[in-house]
């Protein structure tokens, strides 16, 4: 009888456990993305087991490994009070310690290292989705495992196990830098595939090609190579690098938070407050230098009825896709932001009326000529064709404040929409141009 009760309790616990597993967020992901994530995690786990089983455990190596983990944990703890930004690529500087482990220790150590670091982060911070943390852990294991193997493929006659001196230390540092690039490419490549599967509209340049992201990557790689050189000379010296890594981590997190505050999460464009602040800066610079400046207001035609008919989720994707297409037609110096539920505002610094007209025509034609397919939800597979109307105002002697220029552009937009959809009106011209 007791055995039967124990069996029933075991079955009950198994059912409860399976029910919890079934509620994991990863199962709600699209099948292709879910398969990719699980596949990468499985490959990383398999290769990590092989690499760890090949380690000849030695006390000096264990102490170096423990020291690197301790330093990484100190950085996590020192920046724990600062909120991480989700939905993008966070540069947490953990690769600084991983590269040092990849070069100075056998590959099994660096493939094992992300596991305790991730466990500690989850325990202390309890933020983010578990499957994302596990996937990031897997990409780091694969990336810096590849960097470690690459370093060991270089002939010892060229680099050797330690930096040496004179020309040898330069060759050694160059080899470490190359291995750091291998780790960066593998890690970011695996992440990019997942991001593109999750959102096909995401642009590589927005994640890894902006000035801030390139600066952060160069800073992280520089610290990683420097720390690796120090650890290779004497592992005790890694403590000297710890304050620098903590300060850089604070700087990067602060920069990410500032950028997050400026950006509208639904479109990736500047939010209204940030756009207005930066537009004022451009306006006063144009006044000071006497250069031309124009403002355009862009409105999605009949967007309210689309939202009422198709639903909020579809409207969110349509708005995001329109924002992406508009931004793609602009120049680097142009400033675009959101200005309402369906309206966008653009500043054109140093732009003549002819150039404004040409860019506006290009934006209008791009939106009108592009079909937008819904990717998920009950409307998945449906295709929408949208148009936009654009009102433009150019700074002149009667418009000496940004609010006046915005008002003139908004009036031009009303005139454009009053003559039908998919129109452009430029108020700076002697006669209204509606087409």
Spatial arrangement of strands, main beta sheet: 2-3-1-6-7
**Mean pLDDT value:** 81
Q: Termini, distance in Å?
A: 86 Å
Radius of gyration: 27 Å
Task: State the secondary-structure class.
Answer: alpha+beta
Order of helices and strands: HHHHHHHHHHHHEHHEEHEEEHE
Count of β-strands:
7
- What's the number of structural domains? 2
- The proportion of residues forming helix, as a percent range, comes to 55-70%
Overall geometry comes to globular
Our count of helices gives 16
The fraction of residues in strands falls at: 5-15%
Q: Uncertain runs with pLDDT below 50, 5 residues or more?
A: 430-435
**Biggest sheet features:** 5 strands, mixed
Could you list some keywords that capture this structure?
Alpha-Beta Plaits, 64% helix, 7 strands, globular, 435 residues, alpha+beta
Task: Detail the topology: elements first, then pairings.
Layout: H1 2-22, H2 31-53, H3 59-78, H4 95-104, H5 107-112, H6 114-125, H7 130-153, H8 167-198, H9 204-208, H10 211-233, H11 238-262, H12 272-289, E1 293-300, H13 303-310, H14 312-328, E2 335-338, E3 343-349, H15 353-368, E4 371-373, E5 383-385, E6 388-394, H16 402-418, E7 424-426
Parallel strand pairs: 6-7
Antiparallel strand pairs: 1-3, 1-6, 2-3, 4-5
